[in-house]
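Subgroup meeting minutes
Present: P.N., E.W., G.H.
Scribe: E.W.

1. P.N. recapped why we're keeping a running log of single-chain structure predictions: easier to compare across weeks, and new members can see raw inputs and outputs side by side.
2. G.H. added today's entry (312 aa).
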Amino acid sequence: MAGLLDQLRDQCPDKQARPNLKMAGGQDHKWGPAYTAQPRTLIRFVCMQQLPPLPAIAPRSTALFLDFDGTLADLAPQPEAVRVADDLVALLRLLFSQVGGALAIVSGRRLSDLDEFLHPLELPSAAEHGAQRRLADGQLVGIAPPDLQHAIKAASALAKQHAGLQVEIKKAAVALHYRHAPELETLCRQIMTEATRASTGVELLCGKYVFEIKPAGVSKGTAIATFMLHAPFAGRVPLFAGDDVTDEAGFAAVQSLGGSGIKVGDGETVAQHRCASPAALRQWLRKACPNGGLLPENPGLNTKKSFQGMTS
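Output recorded in log:
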């Protein structure tokens, strides 16, 4: 196997990335998850882009935007099983103070979901990819939701036929999750594409094991750009960390404003920086706090068992 790995490293088109070539699913920490496909074993390799180290957070000049799932918190097999590090709320509270309130959560989740996980904090937030927002002064604003009845019926009908599918109905969007039925990706894409075409004022967003029909023209990028027009974000340099393809619009937005995007985990990206995992990102955030925020280096985890939200 070692010889095969070395051979495949040599085939990586990015010579600088060859030392960081990863195998999906191996047990060694340098390699991550192998999967097989019958009748022959298929090993997937990813050339990791080598990106500059993470930028510094300057308390007086940084505007900090953070995705939730896969960024602040690790992804889980079930959305309701997401585990939040014990120190996360305390860390965000310190950071919020440290940057003068110029910190916002930018997520595909519902706003109520975010508040449940981060209780008692109610931070400035862009939920549902920006369709619902809480401003720095606590005011709630949102766009008029599109007519999603056709999309909801189509997604729900498919989910009834396949136990591994889950439908999430938000205020302004509907998402079809197929994490537990990845073999249905093509079918899910087809159904959601047809539903999008049959609806008005919407577009299809493809994320990690999810297809979501949401208002057209709404994205994490537009949400961040809007935040940057108003205090306390205006005039600062924006940083945005996210893990999914749904975060690419956010990366592009902050970089167009002279800031930086931070990709968490593997995958191609327009972001200028990368860190390995949510744990690594949290450690970077701790370093921005006074004395590391006096937070534990290896915090425990707290599962909110009653939470039933979805991820995207």
